[in-house]
Recover the amino acids of this structure.
């Protein structure tokens, strides 16, 4: 996006705007042992779950690479898994194949029944307050509420353009009515992607099965105290023996940047751009995974085209 910032983008920076997730994924786990079932397969500690807190977590490969990113939330006697867009059906099949004879777990794919709407901007809480909705003012906060007879879950997430954003999970029929009541500008996909890159947060392009959680700055999604899961030993060694040799960084350039471009230092490749966008105020921005010691703020790298790219910060 170039030129003057569009109203929705400005609103997300200075006020509030919304984004509706396309093909949102939602799985519901029920049964007597669903917590134990997911605890042995995912990276974070489900002991942190509470009616006021979600647990963001990961699936990792045997090599410790990120395969999937999702959030887990209690909903009465069941557990909700909010997946990456479009990944609900695939994850339902994945977990179904891992249910053994002694597991008392049932999985329902409810992706088509619910809408997921993000509110971005410093005035998101005030906008929701006008509807009588109040999110928990802490990262990973969860509040179950009701609006015009419909159940609504409010989840506080890392913010794009503000400290926190709020994800609303609600039945699809209620979504148009709620949005009409909020009367907010709508972000398109490219605007939302720009906000993410400006915030330095990993997203779908970074969850490409190539990087470990620590390389993407997702340390808090990996428990150091829970039991075993796939990839746990590799990730533990990365920490114990200081083997995290790459980091996600935000870079800036006077020329356009593109995913897949390699970045070089002293003529040698040291990393690759994973996401890129053009900011109306900050020029050409990108996220890149860089090998140390070439991951320090202020370092100037070069693209394959010989253009300079300056590291703004590391996630």
């Amino acid at each position: 996006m170039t030129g003057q910032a569009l109203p929705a983008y400005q609103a997300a920076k200075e006020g509030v705007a919304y984004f509706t997730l396309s093909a949102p994924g939602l799985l519901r786990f029920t049964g007597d042992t669903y917590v134990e079932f997911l605890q042995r397969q995912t990276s974070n500690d489900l002991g942190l779950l509470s009616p006021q807190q979600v647990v963001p977590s990961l699936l990792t490969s045997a090599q410790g690479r990120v395969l999937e990113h999702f959030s887990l939330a209690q909903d009465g006697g069941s557990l909700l898994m909010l997946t990456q867009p479009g990944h609900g059906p695939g994850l339902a099949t994945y977990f179904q194949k891992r249910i053994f004879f002694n597991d008392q777990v049932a999985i329902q794919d409810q992706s088509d029944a619910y809408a997921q709407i993000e509110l971005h901007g410093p005035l998101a809480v005030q906008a929701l307050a006008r509807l009588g909705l109040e999110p928990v003012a802490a990262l990973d906060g969860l509040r179950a509420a009701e609006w015009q007879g419909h159940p609504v879950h409010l989840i506080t997430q890392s913010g794009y353009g503000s400290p926190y954003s709020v994800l609303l999970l609600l039945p699809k029929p209620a979504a148009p009515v709620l949005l009409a009541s909020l009367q907010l500008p709508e972000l398109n996909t490219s605007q939302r992607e720009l906000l993410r890159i400006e915030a330095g947060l990993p997203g779908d392009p970074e969850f490409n099965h190539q990087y470990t959680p620590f390389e993407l700055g997702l340390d808090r999604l990996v428990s150091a105290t829970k039991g075993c899961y796939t990839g746990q030993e590799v990730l533990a060694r990365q920490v114990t023996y200081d083997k995290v040799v790459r980091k996600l960084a935000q870079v800036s350039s006077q020329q356009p940047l593109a995913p897949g471009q390699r970045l070089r230092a002293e003529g040698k490749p040291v990393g690759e751009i994973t996401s890129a966008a053009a900011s109306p105020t900050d020029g050409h921005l990108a996220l890149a995974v860089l090998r140390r010691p070439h991951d320090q703020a202020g370092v100037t790298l070069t693209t394959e085209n010989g253009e300079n790219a300056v590291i703004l910060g590391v996630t």
